[in-house]
Specification:
The chain is α/β, with parallel strands linked by helices. The protein has an eight-stranded parallel β-barrel with strand order 3-4-5-6-7-8-9-10, surrounded by six helices. A two-stranded antiparallel ribbon has the order 1-2. Belongs to the proline oxidase family.
């Protein structure tokens, strides 16, 4: 994971060390893309010495709202407060979801009005722009405020090879855009395997992989090197009968999908930008993990990984699978990177398990989920502090952020902080993001971009699957109101 040049606001009154190390020594000049947009044509030269503040968990301060939001314009604070208030009201979320899914989109004129309303509210808050160039501008603004960006082209499911090829071109262009921006302002390029491999094939692969877990003698001639995909506690109820072998056409489609991920991974190697593979629902996650681990084996070298996987800690088997995967990676000498998240498919996972007569794969209580996230976080922090690998802690939970910051300080992770990144969704947990950044940690915002209609599935999922998180954004709203009040008093001279 490459380091970043620290903005001046973070450098003041702090001690520094220069022991950080980038993913690679430089961006290969011979591979620089030729992008025409003027806003992307003048990247800042890299600093000769990258300075990082010494970490101190006591610096994770949420009381100084002026410092937290010093780089957030008042107009953005007002919009953020309004949007977060609206998304915390369930009837409002229900109405918005109904409108986005309704036939009103088929009515000429009405559709344009709806899209304009979404673009200036919900979309404008949670998304970085309608194209890679606009997203680049958002990244620059974020970088000036001390944060980095995770760029993700906001397309999700693909259903045929033509759609997968189209999506791949967009992901490859995203890598080009990331290289044209200030060095290290983009921490990761994000890819969804569901966008570069047909969903039906991912379902077939997951069934076959699950059946082989049930019956090790079950032969999968197409299977390449991977880490363990399952643990003893992993539920296998999705596959209720022995699946048929892949047809010649499916094997050909699989080879094409593997080639797409390989091409994207190689592009990231050349661009010196890590690639992070997002997690999905459990019906296709085994296939996604298979793709991820195979790409990691092929492309992760040295100390710092290029390909990162995602572990959803709201799943009961998450810690066990994480231990098995990291052990296998160590044995093969492969540096592995992981993003830890809680998870975003709770309602659908529970409904599916219940419909099949099985217990939910999700932890029974939120406390169990918190414990799993924190345990996995502690394990991986110690691991990357003492060896190769990388870690992204994607959390909106204040307590998890504080625990991880304290743990990192305790074990001296500050000396290898290129291996640790905190992350939050764009438009969410701004106080945690800026608080961690002020304390000296690298912090990224997950930044989906694309036309409003293309990103609509992401927005719907953001609303539907994260109602609890949106409702729990009260802490952010409270701090934003305090800062808005402070600015109003300052403007009035009170």
């Amino acid at each position: 994971m490459a380091t970043r040049v620290i903005p001046p606001r973070i450098l003041r009154n702090l001690r520094y060390n220069t022991a950080t190390k980038p993913l690679a020594s430089s961006h290969p000049s011979s591979l620089s893309p030729t992008l025409s947009p003027p806003c992307l044509s003048d990247p800042k030269p890299p600093s000769q010495t990258v300075l990082r503040p010494a970490l101190d968990p006591s610096a994770l301060d949420f009381n100084d709202v002026q410092s937290l939001f010093s780089y957030v314009p008042t107009s953005n604070l007002l919009r953020s407060t309004a949007v977060l208030h609206a998304t915390a009201v369930e009837p409002m979320v229900d109405l918005g979801m109904w409108i986005m899914r309704s036939k009103l989109f088929e009515v000429e004129g009405v559709k344009d009005v709806i899209l304009a309303a979404i673009r200036n509210t919900f979309y404008g808050h949670f998304c970085a722009g309608e194209d890679a160039v606009t997203a680049g501008k958002s990244i620059r603004a974020l970088n000036d405020a001390g944060l980095r960006g995770m760029l993700v082209y906001g397309v999700e499911d693909a259903h045929d090879n033509e759609g997968c090829d189209r999506n791949l071109k967009c992901f490859l262009h995203t890598v080009d855009v990331s290289r044209s921006l200030p060095p290290s302002s983009v921490s990761f390029v994000i890819v969804k395997i569901t966008a570069i491999c047909p969903m039906s094939l991912l379902e077939r692969l997951s069934d076959l992989l699950r059946w082989q877990q049930k019956d090790p003698s079950f032969n999968l001639p197409w299977k390449q090197d991977s880490f363990p995909l399952f643990s003893d506690s992993t539920p296998l109820y999705h596959t209720r009968k022995r699946p048929e072998a892949l047809t010649p056409q499916e094997e050909s489609d699989l080879e094409l999908a593997m080639q797409r991920l390989n091409e994207l991974s190689q592009k990231c190697v050349q661009a010196n930008v890590p690639l992070l593979v997002d997690a999905e629902h459990t019906s296709v996650q085994p296939a996604i993990d298979y793709f991820t681990y195979n790409a990691a084996i092929n492309h992760n070298k040295g100390e710092s990984p290029i390909v990162f996987g995602t572990m959803q800690t709201y799943l009961k088997d998450a810690k066990e699978r994480l231990l098995l995967a990291t052990k296998a990676a160590d044995k093969m000498g492969i540096p592995m990177g992981f993003k830890l998240v809680r998870g975003a498919y709770m309602s659908s996972e529970r409904k599916l398990a219940s419909s099949l007569g099985y217990a939910s794969p999700i932890h029974n209580t939120i406390q169990d989920t918190h414990k799993c996230f924190n345990d996995c976080s502690s394990f991986l922090l110690e691991k990357v502090a003492n060896g190769p690998g990388g870690l992204v802690l994607a959390t909106h939970n204040i307590e998890s952020g504080k625990l991880a910051a304290a743990k990192a300080h305790e074990i001296g992770i500050g000396k290898v902080n290129h291996k640790l990144e905190f992350a939050q969704l764009l438009g969410m947990s701004e106080a945690l993001s800026y608080g961690l950044s002020n304390a000296g940690f690298q912090v990224s915002k997950y930044m989906p971009f694309g036309p409003v209609e293309t990103v609509m599935p992401y927005l719907l999922r953001r609303a539907e699957e994260n109602r609890g998180m949106l409702a729990a954004s009260g802490f952010d709203r409270l701090l934003m109101r305090k800062e808005l009040g402070r600015r109003l008093k300052a403007a009035l001279g009170v």
